[in-house]
Specification:
Two copies of one chain form a homodimer. By secondary structure, chain A is an alpha+beta fold. The first copy, chain A, is built from six helices and 15 strands. Chains A and B meet through strand 1, strand 2, strand 6, strand 8 and strand 9 of A and strand 1, strand 2, strand 6, strand 8 and strand 9 of B.
Chain lengths: 340, 340
């Protein structure tokens, strides 16, 4: 029997189409493992080609005496510009803002071939440190109201360069998905006197059936009302509204949980194209009691069709509980390989 | 300079990335015209294969003495089932509904090769009559709260069968995109005492710059804050909250406007994959003053990447005014060819 489930955070309904149901393993890409070289002469993100990108705004290690392990640069093809002011105008109810913002690229490592699940945990922690460093620095700018940090892995997920990298976009407005969640979170807090995310995480940890992986400070789980197969959330167990507030200890744990989760997807589903996003509250939200940041991981296993696009309501053919069971069983002990 | 624009109906912001701007013609598929046969022996939607689909729930002409021109059947791989009741349950704030609903397929014509822009206006009107007929019939069912009618054209737009067809999904809940629009529409009505859609359509018709095509009863325009290139809306000029209230005269005009618009896209952008959706108010909305139904047309010219997926905020690389100018210039006089 098909089933409709309501997303607890947005109150949006999704259809879990069990009549069309697929076993999780049917969604594996069956993609032959690619031989990717670790250095590509023509790649602007490979070591030695630093002059082909805009000057870096951050590098680890900070000392220029050592080769870099993580590099942050302004996006050469930025969607928004930090050179303009966010001037607003209104004409016949049509609102515009001049395109102020920051658009940066985080180069995950010097190695062209190693995507995030194949990097050592300590290196993933370095990438997360770079995220937090840029998040904190840009948050101070009073024109910035929200910062989205995200990863496109694979062409179908929007990656135009193969060298593993992440991106950051700082906007003068709150993106709609965050806005809807803030609205519902505020309402739940007023109704129930608690953070709706904390509440849900506690219940899910009790229930176990959708949990994929649990660390000391983070838990990764399949989404109860997942819009697409294998949609996964990673939540900090401590209440925090802003990604900028993550501690060093928490970064080390998130690195382990995120890498292990991505490795389970990489191995179990045979390296599908994938996006992940850090969904933080607005930059002013440090200390907010009603919102809770998290990481949303979306493997790109299906295409969005007319019904989804036109209604915003999704049809998901994989039961989230089956997806969780599948991912729990994928062993990732040796995924980081020689470099671990 | 890039620009942020706010969607008037949802208050969502989009980035119009003029720094990365593309001229409209750059997005053409450059796809070689395909030789599609008008009859395919193995196609379940081709004439003679009627027994391979579930029994029809509607056919035009109604008389069985004549061959059918439009046929409506239950979807063999339905996402929802009319055999179950929409029983609700709530456990730890996790809401579910048993998967009640209707999922039907409208076979546009017996001709395997003729997609909608290549059909005569009168035939398109027949398809719209079938939409309205099913809309009205299913609206009477008190368990149905919303009906989405949509078209997937091409594999990237989610079409799994090539034979031109549309679909209808009747749900016991209001899809999220409609829900957000209802909320904003109600608020605008309370604030301004008018339908926000009527207001916007009037201003756009005055301004002209985003108008693509205007009929007697319908107007097609590029969306001011389009999330994706060539996102186009067709509005009825008369205030109507429910698609079920469209008159025969209006159907004839919508057939002309919709076909001409799709033909402009078909010719100008070289047959891109495409979705359109009829966005009606809830089934109970006949007579509602604050909402206004419309058709949303989305050519699938770009991929959704991590930022869009993770934030709900889109980056559009084509200026809507340039898209409108481009489409206005595409001549479609002979598009319907021999069959017109």
């Amino acid at each position: 029997m098909p089933e409709l489930r309501q997303n607890f955070f947005t109150k949006e309904w999704v259809i879990i189409a069990t009549e069309r149901a697929k076993r999780p393993e049917e969604l594996a890409t069956h993609r032959a493992p690619q031989e990717v070289p670790s250095f590509v002469e023509s790649c602007p993100f490979c070591p030695g080609n630093e002059s082909r990108t805009p000057p870096e705004v951050l590098r680890y290690p900070v000392s220029l005496a050592e080769p870099w392990s993580v590099r942050v640069i302004p996006n050469k093809f930025a969607a928004l510009s930090s050179e303009v002011q966010p001037t607003r105008s209104l004409q016949h109810l049509r609102r515009r803002i001049d395109g102020f913002g920051f658009h940066e690229v985080i180069i995950d490592s010097p190695d062209h071939s190693r995507c995030l699940p194949l990097l050592p945990d300590a290196h993933v922690a370095g990438i997360l440190h770079a995220y937090r460093d840029r998040y904190r620095t840009l948050s101070v700018d009073r024109r910035v109201n929200h910062i989205t940090i995200f990863k496109n892995h694979g062409a179908d997920a929007g990656a135009s360069l193969q060298h593993p990298h992440s991106q950051l976009i700082a906007t003068p407005v709150i993106p709609s998905q965050v806005r809807h969640r803030l609205h519902e979170a505020r309402r739940h807090y007023d109704d129930a006197g608690e953070c709706m995310f904390c509440h849900m995480v506690e219940r899910e940890v009790e229930d176990q059936m959708r949990i994929v992986i649990k660390g000391e400070h983070f838990v990764g789980m399949e989404v109860f009302a997942a819009a697409t197969p294998f949609a996964t959330h990673i939540f900090p167990l401590r209440h925090m509204a802003s990604f900028g507030d993550i501690s060093d200890l928490e970064i080390a744990d998130l690195a382990r949980v995120l890498r292990a989760l991505l490795a389970k997807i990489y191995i179990g589903l045979e390296n599908p194209d994938l996006n992940f996003t850090i969904r933080s509250g607005p930059t002013e939200y440090s200390g907010a009691r009603h919102f809770h940041w998290y990481v949303s991981v979306i493997p790109r296993l299906t295409r969005v069709a007319g019904f989804e696009l036109g209604s915003g309501m999704f049809i998901n053919t994989v039961l989230p509980e089956a997806a969780a069971e599948f991912l729990r069983k994928v062993s990732v002990e040796h995924a980081a390989g020689a470099g671990a």
